Amino acid sequence: MIKKFLFSSLIALCSITSLHAQTKTKDTNNTADPDNLASQYLSQVMGVAVDATSNLKLYKFIYEWIGTPYRYGGNTKKGIDCSAFTKAIYDKVFNTTILRNSRDIFSMVNPLPKDELKEGDLVFFKIKSAKISHIGIFLGNGRFAHASNRGVVISNLNDPYYARYFYKGGRILDSMKDNLIEE
Questions:
Q1: Does residue 3 carry a pLDDT above 60?
Q2: Which of 1, 4, 7, 103 is least buried, going by the fewest C-beta atoms within 10 A?
Q3: CA-to-CA distance for 81 and 46, rounded, in angstroms?
Q4: Which among 68, 83, 122, 146 is annotated as catalytic?
Q5: pLDDT in tens, 93-150
């Protein structure tokens, strides 16, 4: 129900913004770009700065999954866990096959500190464990998407809970992108 409301709001926002852009400018070749409108909408809804350099496919994918319940071992819209969600993003958005478990995925990355993360990088956590136990995808501005016990959400790395358990960020190694890994 909420997604239908948000979708209809997006349509209304696109219509209003398009009309405003057409009346504001005399140059008919400079009408509103639908991808730019979607970026603005997703920025507001998701609380993430989506700009012209952002991967709009990534944000659309995440938006479609927001609210999906958490289910350990799950990999569908009926329920999904953090590593399956991350694997789905890499498969559908980046056309890259990654492993299924957060610890195994960590073996595929070049570890990075928080301040070097870029959109699409991975974030790893050791939550109440000596081993990596949670994974998400970095969106920028301290935000990351992940499947949590509250379902698929966008959270802030600076939130005291996530800051406490943050282990490292990581970027998939180019050699891993070239050699797609089978499950």
A1: no
A2: 1
A3: 20
A4: 146
A5: 999 999 999 999 999 999 999 999 999 999 999 999 999 999 999 999 899 999 999 9
CA dihedral 90, 94, 99, 101 (to 10 degrees): -20
Selecting among 82, 117, 132, 137, the annotated active-site residue is: 82
pTM surpassing 0.85?
no
How is residue 132 written in tokens? 């990596």
Exactly one of 134, 144, 153, 176 is catalytic; which is it?
134
Q: How far apart are CA 106 and CA 169, in angstroms?
A: 9
Q: What is the DSSP secondary structure assignment for residue 104, as one 8-state letter? A: H
DSSP 110: E
* Domain edges within the chain: 1-65, 70-183
Which is it for strands 79-80 and 122-125: parallel, antiparallel or unpaired? Answer: unpaired
CATH dotted code for 70-183: 3.90.1720.10
With beta carbons less than 8 A apart as the criterion, state whether 91 and 156 touch. Answer: no
Order of all β-strands in the sheet with 134-140: 109-112, 166-172, 122-125, 134-140, 143-148, 151-156
